[in-house]
Amino acid sequence: MRTFISVELPDEVKKNIAELINELKDAGTGVKWVDPKILHMTLKFLGWVEDRNLDNLIELTAKAVSGKGSFKARFEGLGTFPEGKTPRVVWVGTAEGGDELCKLAKDLEETLSKAGFRKEEREFKSHITIGRVKEKKVPRQARDNGVDKLKEKIRKIKDAKFGEAVVDRIHIMKSTLTPKGPIYEIFKEVKL
């Protein structure tokens, strides 16, 4: 099963991000925008996990977050990875709660990678991916013009606010890739 561990977002936050995506869509770049219905914050991407390892994944995830307690996360700010260059990812950030989300991701990473699950190559940065730039689908000149337009729009609204959530649980998610986009299903809910 293809899996990742995430924090789910309240409908209000998804609605506010959907409005932002609609505003950014006219930048004209080859951005594949995330369907607002499946927006989430990935804490750890695991990739393919064999069925025989799923019980162990659940147990280790619960152990990694045991006793953490709930906290409030406030979603605000807009940016790109990499910063200042041709973007590959457009994201919404976190203000309050960002440190706690980073700690959750770090604890999950340490516990799961020690047990042999996929190790993350990059340091976790608390964000919600809202779009991915698909360079190969857009001619170079149009892409460069569109990227500049997108970066300018992001600069103008970089401090936008999208709402908040009480983070009191995380989810082990099943991800099924389809030609129409990914389908995400909650496999297991783990309380903090």
Q: What this model shows, in words?
A:
The structure is a single chain. The protein is globular. The chain has a single domain, classed as Cyclic Phosphodiesterase, Chain: A, CATH 3.90.1140.10. The strands form two sheets. A five-stranded antiparallel sheet has the order 2-6-5-4-7. It contains four helices and nine strands; from the N terminus they run E-H-E-E-H-E-E-H-E-H-E-E-E. It is α+β, with helices and mostly antiparallel strands and 192 residues long.
Bin the helical content.
25-40%
- Looking at how many chains there are and whether they match, the oligomeric state comes to single chain
Give the full name of the CATH homologous superfamily. Answer: Cyclic phosphodiesterase
Number of strands: 9
Radius of gyration of CA atoms, rounded to a whole number? 17 Å
Structural domain tally: 1
Low-confidence stretches: none
On the 0-100 scale, what is the average pLDDT? 91
Cα-to-Cα separation, first versus last residue: 24 Å
The level-1 CATH class: Alpha Beta
